[in-house]
Task: inverse folding
């Protein structure tokens, strides 16, 4: 397990407040200045691991329809039926934020939520089997590709893999795509409550062996269960550390005695990606 996960295990269980959902992005707008400054201004005495508010921004059919790029975004994606919606509800601490469906491929739009008024959680359409028409499936996949390649405030992708399955070709192909397109990501193995610990570890080992040739050092690996809430703190800690690093990058750009403007969020995200050794990129 990587250093992020080890550090995350030292966090005490957070006390959750009820979530507030809004149906329109127009009800919430913000200007990015500093993550900690924003939290202090709205009197948020909590860290990322304590989700106090989740505001629905919009469901975007394509990249151009997404909200402005003023907030850092963390995207979750996996093959259809990987348990993504249940995982997102577990992270937010509120059932019903992301719709859970028994129909594979139900999520067909980019769903964005503003969390703690500081960052966005992005629910991306799953890849793989879908009941939609073939031409729609192709369009959805292109939408995801456009977002992952061109969204300048995207900080990190959580690539979801079902822990109860041996390495699947479609998952391996997607991870290889992330590597080729230099998209920063971590691996999250889901539904650990459905199978034995031995099976989970065996499948994780088999998956990491299959992708090991693409890296000098493997990406961070996490496990989770929406049913038992296992892994929640570890995943939120990853986001918290990324946000802290972005804020530090912003502080370093300030020169005492000079009134130079802060760099844009996309610039800070790009700079922060360069200094994240724990992401273990091969490029």
Result:
């Amino acid at each position: 397990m990587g250093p992020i996960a080890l550090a995350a295990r030292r966090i005490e269980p957070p006390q959750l407040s009820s979530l507030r959902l809004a149906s329109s992005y127009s009800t919430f707008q913000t200007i990015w200045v500093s993550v900690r400054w924003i939290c202090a201004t709205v009197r948020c005495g909590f860290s990322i691991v304590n989700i106090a508010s989740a505001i629905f921004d919009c469901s975007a059919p394509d990249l151009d329809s997404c909200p402005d790029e003023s907030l850092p975004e963390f995207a979750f994606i996996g093959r259809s039926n990987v348990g993504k919606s249940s995982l997102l509800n577990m992270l937010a601490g509120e059932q019903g934020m992301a719709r859970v469906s028994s129909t594979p491929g139900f999520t067909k739009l980019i769903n964005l939520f503003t969390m703690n008024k500081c960052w966005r959680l992005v629910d991306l359409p799953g890849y793989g089997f879908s009941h939609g028409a073939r031409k729609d499936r192709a369009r959805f996949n292109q939408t995801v590709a456009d977002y992952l390649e061109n969204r300048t405030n995207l900080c990190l992708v959580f690539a979801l893999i079902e822990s109860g399955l041996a390495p699947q070709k479609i998952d391996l192909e997607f991870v290889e795509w992330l590597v080729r397109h230099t998209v920063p990501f971590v691996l999250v193995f889901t539904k650990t409550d459905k199978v034995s610990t031995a099976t989970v570890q065996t499948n994780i080992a088999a998956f990491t062996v299959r992708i090991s040739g693409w890296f000098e050092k493997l990406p961070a690996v996490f496990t989770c269960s929406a049913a038992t809430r296992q892994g929640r703190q570890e995943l939120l800690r990853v986001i918290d550390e990324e946000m802290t690093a972005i804020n530090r990058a912003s502080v370093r750009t300030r020169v005492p005695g000079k009134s130079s403007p802060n760099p844009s969020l996309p610039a800070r995200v790009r700079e922060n990606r360069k200094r994240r050794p724990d992401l273990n990129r091969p490029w």
User: Anything to note?
Assistant: Residues 106 and 130 are 7 Å apart (CA to CA). The first strand starts at residue 54 and ends at 60. The chain has a mean pLDDT of 75.
